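Re: your question from the hallway

Yes, I did run it. Sequences:
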Amino acid sequence: MQTFQQEIQLPAFKRGFHLITHEILEGLPEISQLNAGLLQVFIKHTSASLTINENADPTVREDFESHFNVLVPESATYFKHTFEGPDDMTSHIKSSLLGSSVTVPITNGRLNLGTWQGIYLCEHRNYGGQRRLVLTAFGS
Amino acid sequence: MQTFQQEIQLPAFKRGFHLITHEILEGLPEISQLNAGLLQVFIKHTSASLTINENADPTVREDFESHFNVLVPESATYFKHTFEGPDDMTSHIKSSLLGSSVTVPITNGRLNLGTWQGIYLCEHRNYGGQRRLVLTAFGS
Amino acid sequence: MQTFQQEIQLPAFKRGFHLITHEILEGLPEISQLNAGLLQVFIKHTSASLTINENADPTVREDFESHFNVLVPESATYFKHTFEGPDDMTSHIKSSLLGSSVTVPITNGRLNLGTWQGIYLCEHRNYGGQRRLVLTAFGS
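Structure:
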């Protein structure tokens, strides 16, 4: 068994949900050396997150943004952590609802995703800036 | 260290939350060869998901279905991705709230779950059909 | 590649969100032996969970508690699984929203968390008691 690890920096994305499968594959080409294993993608931030979902229709990603704004509304009056702006505490909660990592099987040197699956960067802040990811692949 | 990987197909389950711990154990008997490791279960779909929760009282799984229908209601009027039916976009969101994989420790050849823990298939579609899982176990 | 695994017991925490990064590092000092790998932390319970979020301002953890009580209210009248008290079924659902494990990259013998990231125990019950975690680290 082998381990490959690489830290990469994404360009700044606007608030919303964005497909980044391609950026991840480019960031760790050693995935192709593994017959059977796993890739973990970890985001080193607490106001952006990662998930796996539909990779084809852009309105799916728009609907994610709409619904997460309903689930965690910036109009909530009970938040105490407000000094970084109304989009900060909501971003922390959205991040934990979605999670700070995704893990995908590797089979025959490729990510073994379903036909319609892609990896999303979920940018919850209005101006989140560049985000750092750690890519760790291992297997045999 | 060793890696074992197997892709399995579940029978079609009706919409709701279902215990599938047994199907997973049957799908990868090599778990018994690992003294210390992890099992990842990954679902290759974006409208069904996986989680770990209470394995005894069926009303817990019914209450999950009731509450997720409140958290992500099909009556929401702001969804744009509607051409696959009212249960499609809600299924995508529920899937990301719960996640497309679970990872469980393996200890002495067995899943090291708590007494009350089981693995759930969360079928969010009305007619989701058969679902494919990738089981990856590794360790020493 | 090597695997290290240890089961630890946390002291009872009150209902709410609590930083436990230090307890985890103390529980598996072998993390320092890994140049590149992953640590998984798994909780063996269905009414408490784990997540990664902001490690500095205590009001962030208070706001998590406030908002999860809104997302999964004990006043909901449709729950059938009620015989263990009003905080039980809600705890099961909160646990699955947040998840029963977190996985963090290990780089040069340390957890490769972002500056502001810490690991939270999310205690959803009023009196949850001691909680058991399984720590599994592997890599090279």
